[in-house]
């Protein structure tokens, strides 16, 4: 698909302006499916969800259904979940174990390696023969894992996963690498739809700690421990009546290559007010191991927000990891996974799941605050005037820097929009570019611009 849309006019990251038609235009959405979701590394599932040969997990890459399958030799492949005969999905269960995927329409059957192995009435229906080797499931071009997380990419020319992640891997390790045993997904996947564009969610998790002070004010008031609370209130001993942004010393935001992260420098390993006491206690009990592996800053980083561009987000401490699956310009389907240390005791894993569901499940008290805002915005953008009126994205502009204390990447104060500007710039660069070499050239030019004294 070629385009005449002027993305430089819609996204002026240098001066902090975004025109909200990027959240509503169906033509832009179609181009996103091709040039963002068809080119970027996308989170598929966690290795713990498909431990044995024949285990599979169904997800989406953009709007394309994809099935991930553990092979007989232990490796992982992913396939477009589309029958080559008339395009039915060949796998319908969310996950499971199988020896073959049999299409429900006319019964073509594919092995777990994607090969077409069985065609009903083959000799009668295809008297001239059918070359089954040609009609296997389409394999996702590239599949790679990072510390248990499996990603897929359709683009042969994309940078490898580690290069694509860049400095974001350092931030991601704060969740994935706290303990020797790594992580696993606890329980199933919670899925729900929100009537808004996927970029509101991705951007907020990349960049927006600013909303929490106001949007979540009532939740924090209700949940924060009060000085006269009973001693048996199930909150961590390090928690205070005040939210972390008031008690923490300082905070940073990281934003580069479209990814974004932010966290507070805390003094105790249990600063989140919305996790169960068991979770807080667990963070204290395992603090030393985490510090030995990650250093003090990341071991203490328990109130962080993050997006790996474009659609994988997570919150440290709260154990929610989610994917924002686009379903049209005006709709997103959230898939929320609870991720926790594999070596944690079962009662702590249960507490992680409870905490994640209570705060960020479909009816979670923080989730609802967030999605209510996005849904209302999407409604306002039905107006012609509203969707063509530029938005202010100037927070902290010009204060970006690289630090010298080992915290990597382009950073700013947490209450800034460095990551948001970077996210939209990467997004626009993908839409404007014909290949990854061009994208990277544009990214490098933007980085130089951002860091100009
Ligand atoms: S569509 Fe799958 S067998 Fe016909
Ligand atoms: Fe929020």
Average pLDDT confidence is 93
What is the general shape?
A: globular
State the end-to-end CA separation. Answer: 38 Å
Query: What is the strand tally?
Result: 22
- Helix fraction, binned, reads 25-40%
Strand content: 15-25%
Structural class: alpha+beta
- Residue stretches low in confidence (pLDDT < 50, at least 5 long) are none
Q: In what order do the strands lie side by side in the largest sheet?
A: 13-19-18-17-16-15-14-22-21
Our Rg estimate from Cα atoms comes to: 23 Å
Ligands bound, unique: FE2/S2 (inorganic) cluster, fe (ii) ion
The main pleated sheet reads as: 9 strands, antiparallel
User: Count of helical segments?
Assistant: 17
Structure write-up:
This protein is α+β, with helices and mostly antiparallel strands. Helices cover 32% and strands 24% of the residues. The chain has helices at 7-10, 26-35, 122-125, 161-165, 168-176, 198-207, 210-215, 217-223, 244-247, 277-285, 287-294, 296-299, 346-360, 365-380, 384-387, 418-432, 436-450, and strands at 11-12, 17-18, 42-46, 55-61, 64-70, 76-80, 95-97, 100-102, 109-111, 116-118, 142-146, 149-153, 183-194, 250-256, 259-265, 305-308, 312-315, 320-326, 332-341, 391-392, 401-402, 410-413. Helix 6 (198-207) crosses helix 16, helix 10 packs across helix 13 (346-360) and helix 16 packs antiparallel against helix 17. The structure holds FE2/S2 (inorganic) cluster and fe (ii) ion (FE2). Fe (ii) ion binds next to helix 7 and helix 14.
Short summary:
This protein is of the alpha+beta class and 453 residues long. It is built from 17 helices and 22 strands.
């Amino acid at each position: 698909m070629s385009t005449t849309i002027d993305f430089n006019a819609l996204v002026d990251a240098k001066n902090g302006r975004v025109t909200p038609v990027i959240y509503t235009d169906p033509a832009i959405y179609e181009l996103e499916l091709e040039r963002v979701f068809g080119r970027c590394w996308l989170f598929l599932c966690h290795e713990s969800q498909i431990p044995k040969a024949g285990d599979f997990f169904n997800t989406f890459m953009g709007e394309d259904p994809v099935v991930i399958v553990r092979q007989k030799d232990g490796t992982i492949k992913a396939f477009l979940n589309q029958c080559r005969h008339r395009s039915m999905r060949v796998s319908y269960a969310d996950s499971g174990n199988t020896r073959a995927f049999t299409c429900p329409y006319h019964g073509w059957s594919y092995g777990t390696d994607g090969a077409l192995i069985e065609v009903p009435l083959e000799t009668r229906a295809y008297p001239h023969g059918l070359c089954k080797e040609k009609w296997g499931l389409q394999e996702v071009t590239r599949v790679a894992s990072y510390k248990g997380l499996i990603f897929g990419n359709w683009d042969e020319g994309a940078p490898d996963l580690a290069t694509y992640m860049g400095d974001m891997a350092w931030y991601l390790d704060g969740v994935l690498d706290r303990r020797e045993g790594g992580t696993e997904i606890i329980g199933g996947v919670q899925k729900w739809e929100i009537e808004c564009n996927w970029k509101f969610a991705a951007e907020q998790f990349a960049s927006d700690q600013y909303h929490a002070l106001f949007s979540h004010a009532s939740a924090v008031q209700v949940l924060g421990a009060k000085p006269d609370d009973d001693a048996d209130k199930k909150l961590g001993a390090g928690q205070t009546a005040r939210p972390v942004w008031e008690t923490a010393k300082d905070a940073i935001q990281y934003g580069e290559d479209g990814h974004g992260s932010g966290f507070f420098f805390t003094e105790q390993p249990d600063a989140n007010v919305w996790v169960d006491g068991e979770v807080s206690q667990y963070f204290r009990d395992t603090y030393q191991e985490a510090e030995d592996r990650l250093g003090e800053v990341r071991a203490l980083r328990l109130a962080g927000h993050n997006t790996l561009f474009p659609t994988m987000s997570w919150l440290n401490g709260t154990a929610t990891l989610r994917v924002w699956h686009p379903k049209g310009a005006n709709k997103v389907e959230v898939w929320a996974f609870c991720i926790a240390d594999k070596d944690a005791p079962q009662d702590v894993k249960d507490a992680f799941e409870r905490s994640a569901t209570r705060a960020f499940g479909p009816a979670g008290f923080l989730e609802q605050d967030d999605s209510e805002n996005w849904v209302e915005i999407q409604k306002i953008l039905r107006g012609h005037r509203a969707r063509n009126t530029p938005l202010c994205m100037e927070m902290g502009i010009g204060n970006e820097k690289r630090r010298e204390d080992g915290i990597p990447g382009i950073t700013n104060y947490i209450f800034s929009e460095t990551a948001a500007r970077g996210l939209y710039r990467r997004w626009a660069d993908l839409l404007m570019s014909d290949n990854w070499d061009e994208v990277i050239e544009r990214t490098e030019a933007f980085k130089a611009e951002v860091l100009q004294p």
